[in-house]
Amino acid sequence: MRLISTFSLAPGDELSKTIYNENGQILINSGVSLTQRMIERLNDIGITYVYIEDELTADIETNYPVSDRVRTDAINTIKSTFDTMKKTDDIANAFIFDRTGQKMMNVVQHILAEVQGHREVINLLSDVFTYDDYIFTHSLNVTIYALALGTELGLPPKRLEELGYGAMLHDVGKTLVPREVLFKPGKLTEDEFQKVKEHSEAGFNMLRKAPTVPLVAAHCAYQHHERLNGSGYPRGLEGNDIHYYAKILGIADVFDAVTSNRVYRKAMLPHEGLEILYSGAGTLFDIDMIEAFRKSVAVYPNGLTVLLSDGRKGIVSKQNTQLSDRPFIRILEEHGNPVHEYYEIDLSKELNLVVMDCDTTLLSKSV
């Protein structure tokens, strides 16, 4: 299968990966031949990339890091918890948290087990989602990224569970931001941006009053937009004044935000998201954490078209553990001409080669 831009789709292209809505319901199933109307609809609803079938890449696979059951359970748990916290006037006396608190921890434990059992680096492009309300899927994605990073950093199981719990609830304060502001397709005014920024403190106040929610989870909500140089919000904390978990969540939150579809912006590819993080290394984000994060995620996802420094073009076919920026490449073009028979190279062994560019339109589908 091959990852391509929705703008490069043509009628008759066969979808390789199912497209879901935020509730896990199928919008377009894998194996469907796309019509022009379907393609226009995908662009209208903001889907940036999809996987399609083709003969030269039919054996290339990519898998979501958690099972459908765990993903659906997590989304439903996040949604029901957020809804409860938004609607409950007296959170401190909300008996519902005696049940949801443990349920959420169970979900975190299941996600952690599957993330740690996932053999490849994390690739959340592996299934395509569209949603009217991205908060719940974003919360799950940030949890997966945070647990992968925490594992790479060597955190013990108890601390990973705390981190995962805080990650799932880090954006609960956004339930109090007016929807017309949160999902505004255009540029926010200064007043609107101030309303959005209030979600950190709002989330902290909601969570610290809930009797079964660990206080550290409240601080995850409070501090995940703080930055090392004091330029973050809401308190402008610096360096070691920022909780360790919040530093992890800041990286996971930004990476998922820029590599996911939003009403106001198309998704970036993972290598572009990492460039954003590295541009803030040492000033906004902890550089050691970014280095660990790079080892945890698929910089160049399977199925992505890449241009190498010697002019050859190909498709990422397989990942190298701990060397996510040096994957296996299936070469399909040399010097602008299709090869008679494709072959694979391992960039971890071809150190003279680097990825110069990657795109979802570099190769014609007729190659």
UniProtKB/TrEMBL annotation:
Organism for this UniProt entry: Pontibacillus yanchengensis Y32
Name of the molecule in the record: Histidine kinase
Domain HD: 135-258
Annotated PROSITE patterns: HD, HD_GYP
Highest taxon above the source species: Bacteria
Pfam families reported in the protein's UniProt record: HD_5 (PF13487)
Family annotation (InterPro entries): HD/PDEase_dom, HD_domain, HD_GYP_dom, HDIG_dom
Domain HD-GYP residues, every copy: 113-309
GO MF annotation terms: kinase activity
Keywords: Kinase, Transferase
